[in-house]
Every structure is written in C-alpha cells, then in structure tokens.
Amino acid sequence: MPVGIFRVCLLVITAIVNHPLFFPKENGTVPENMEEIIQKMKEREESLRLEQLRLEQEIADQEATQKALEKAALVVEETKEEKVRWDMWTALSMVIFLLIELWRQDFQEGNWQDIGGEEDDMAVLGKAFKGVVFPNKAVLASFYEKRILGTTGDMARMREMVEGFADDLLEALRSVCNRDADMEVEDCMGVGSMYENWRVRKPFVCDLIVPFAPPEPYCFRCQTWCSGDSFPPDEQGYGTIKVCRADEDVTGCICDKTKLGEDMLCLLHSQVNTTKPSSEMEDLLCFKNTQYLDADQVMKWFQIAVTKAWNRISHKYEFDLSFSLLDSPGALKIKFRSGKSIAFNLTPVVQYENSDVYFISHFPRSSLATDVPSSTHWFLTFAVYERRFIHLVSKTLPANACHVSCLQILSFLHGKQCSLTGPSGLTNYHLKTVMLHLLQACPSQDWAPEKLEARLQDMLKFLEKCLHEKKLYHFFIGNGKVPAELGFPIIFQRAEPLNLFRPFVLRRDVYRKTVDTFHEMLRNMSALINEYTVHIPLAHTNGIRKESL
C-alpha cells in the first residue's frame, strides 16, 4: 500500500514539473538566441586557435635560442682548445727563434774578433753605407745655413742672461747659508754643448756646474777608481768623497780601512782623535753612519738653499723660477709672464784635488746608462777639459773649420731619427767623443770648410766601427796624447781606457735598437736634410760634384 501511494505521488510531481505552463517562455527563446551563441562560440574558437599558434611560436623560438646557445658554447670550447694549442706552438717557436738568434749573434761576434786584426778598419766598414746617397757639399752648405745657423743665433744672448741670473742666485744663496756650518758655494761655470757652440736641438738648455767645499775645519778626500784600489767594472768612471778634518792624516794608516779586533788598538790614532760617524757627519751631508759624501743629501740641501735664495731675490725679477724635472734635481725653469720659458741646469760638483776634473752629483741619464752603484759614488766629468781642448785645437785649424759643423749635423740627424723611431743607446756625448778622437787623429788641413762632406762621412764610419766592435773609448781617460798645455792630471792619462760602449755588451736589446736606429738614420739622411734645404738647381749641383771629382 505505501509503495502504491509513493508511485502515485511521484507521477503527479513529474506531471506538474513537465507541464508546459510551468516554464511558459523557455522553449520560445531558444530559436531567437541560437545564432548569437553559435557566433560567440566560433569567435571563441578562433581566439583559442590564435592563442595556440602564438604559444607554439614561442615554444619554437625558445627551442631555437637554446640550440643557438648550445652551439655557441661548443664553438667557444673548441676555440679555447685551439688557442691553447696555438699558444703552445707559439711559445715553442719563440724559444727556437731566440736560441737561433743568440747563436747567430755569438757566431757573428766571434767572426768579428777573428777578422778584426786581418783587414783594414775602413775596408771592413761601409757595409751599412751601401745604397746610401750622401748629400753633396752644396746641399750640406745650404742645410747648415738654413737649419743650423738659423736656429742657433740667439744662443749667446741666452747664455749671457742665464749666467747673470745664476750669479745673482748663488750670491743670494751664500747670504742665506750659515758660513760656519753649511757648504761653501763657489762661482758657477758653463759646460756642454751650449758653451761649445754645437747644440742644435731645441729647447736650448744651459748646463752650469757649481763647485762647493765643506766648512772649516773639514775638507774633502777624493778617491777614484784608478787611484790604486781595485774597483768593480761597473764602478769605473766613479769615485768616492770622504769628509775629514783638515788636520786628519788618512794616507799613512790603514786603521780606517781595516776592521780591527776589539782587543786591538791603533798606535798612531787614539780613539779620541779618530773621527767617528755621528750626527755631525750627517749634518755635513754624509751617508748615514759613514764619512762619505751622499749625492742625494747634497741635492736635497742644494734644492732647499736655492729655494731660500730665490725667495730672497724674487721681488727683483718679473718671472717665476721652479724646478722643472723630478729626475733631474738641478733642472730649473724660468717662466716669463708672456708664456715663454728658459731651462737651465744648476748642478753642484766637487773639485778633484787641484784640477778641473769634477765629481758631479747627478749626471743626465740615457737608455744606455747603468744604475749608479750607490749614492756615495760620484761620476767624474771632464767637461771643462773637453771645452778647453776644442778651443785649443780650433786655433790650429783653418778658418771656418768644419769640425763643429759635422758634429751639429750629426747631432741633428740622430735627434730627428730618435724622434721618429724612439730613443737609442747613443747620446750627444758619444757623438762629441767621436769628433774629439778624429780631431786628434786627422791633420789640421783636413778640417777645411770645403771638406765638410768627407769629414761627415769619416765621423759616420768611425761611429759604425765603434758600434761594430762595441768599443768607444773615453777621449781623456787612458789617452797619453793629451796636449800638455791643458794641464790634464797624469793619473787619468795612465789609467786603463774606459769603454763608453761597455753596456752594449751586457744589454743586447739596447745594442740592437741602437744599431737599427743608426742604420735607419743613414737611409733617411738625404730625406731629413732635403726637408730643411733650400732648392738648389741641378746644374749647380752637378757642377760642384764634377769639380770635387
């Protein structure tokens, strides 16, 4: 019975729910919205398809980028492996090349030594001159007149101005120094190319040396490498300066040269009379705990004294004075209000005994120069005797002799070449040394002005010979033919000759650079001279050439 009632109820409910009047408008709206629904579904489908295509494209791009990165990493790895292999082969090739080059140079040096005594010097020379065209006399004369004389005319006026100012500055320096404790400064002297009238390269720089002496009762005791004691090869050309009391005898006893035992006593010198290194010695510009004069201490004292002296007299002048170069303690520069400037070097020196040889505190450096052994080693300069020798020989030469002209032209060519290819081991002092040797070797009449071309070739060949042998001896040291009129100290004439090219033996890189620069200068000589030469008619040039032949 309950089941029957449940079925009847269910049937009634179903009939009510499905009756058309219960949802009267449902079936009526379906036909009206169907097309709109279909259109929206198509639009949705199209948007989904486009989104799918976009996602597929992004996935494809990411895959391509990943493949490119993997390929690049592979290429970099392969490049590193190839570079490692190439660096190894390069290093091996360089080692082999260096070994061959060292063997070749040793072999050539051995051959030079073998043939040097068998052939005439001038016969084995001239290899570097093959294919080199030397300017004739007319071209050289025109070049010298235009380039050399045209730029050196104001040197005399500059020397006069610098010397006058230096004298005033040193007088002020003496007034600010303590006469009882400071060094005694003497008058300055001009040396070098500016005072020998052969400087051609600007800027013109005057070189002045200033002798100084210790205050009383002290004195300087100088010792050189050729005074009897053994000096290492790298200390040849140097000396030491010992500060002693004037009444102290340092020559007759060896107690100051030999370290005595604690239980030993010198019978000649008691401990009371012996000068001991102290703060007093340091006040005398000595190296710490020694009696030897320190070049660095001297330059510091000199710079301070010059600064004080300038502060005292600066109101008298309408220019400024300053130290111009850090590596040259004595380099000064005068700066005018117009912007122009004049440079000069004021360097303290110590006189060797009663001669005109001087110990110089600082010497101009070059790429060939070796390091100074220590600040207690002073280089010897013979600049005063060199100037005197040139002046003495000039009296015996023909009028308007060409020796200075040759040196000026050679200095100009070398300076121009170095400005193009960089510095070399040659300096103007080496070139002047070549001229001094030829002045002594050649007869006086060979230096007539019309023989400028021949003498210039002789200087170049002599320089080539010295480079070839790596030997250029100092003109005065070991030269027994120095004129007696100069009063040159005999101790240096009897010394072993000093080879100025000795560093070439130790530094092959500098030697090779120097030789290459010299050969390049020979090849460029005509071009460098013609650049500063007034045009000369060809007929005139040929006429002079035939006349000389």
Automatic annotation (TrEMBL):
Cited InterPro entries: ITPRIP-like (IPR026250), Mab-21_HhH/H2TH-like (IPR046906), MAB21L/cGLR (IPR024810)
Stretch forming the signal peptide: 1-20
Keyword terms, alphabetized: Cell membrane, Coiled coil, Glycoprotein, Membrane, Nucleus, Signal, Transmembrane, Transmembrane helix
Cross-referenced Pfam families: Mab-21_C (PF20266)
GO cellular component: nuclear outer membrane; plasma membrane
Keyword Coiled coil: yes
Keyword NAD: no
Bilayer topology: Single-pass type I membrane protein
Function description: Enhances Ca(2+)-mediated inhibition of inositol 1,4,5-triphosphate receptor (ITPR) Ca(2+) release.
Protein name, UniProt field: Inositol 1,4,5-trisphosphate receptor-interacting protein
Lineage, highest ranks first: Eukaryota, Metazoa, Chordata, Craniata, Vertebrata
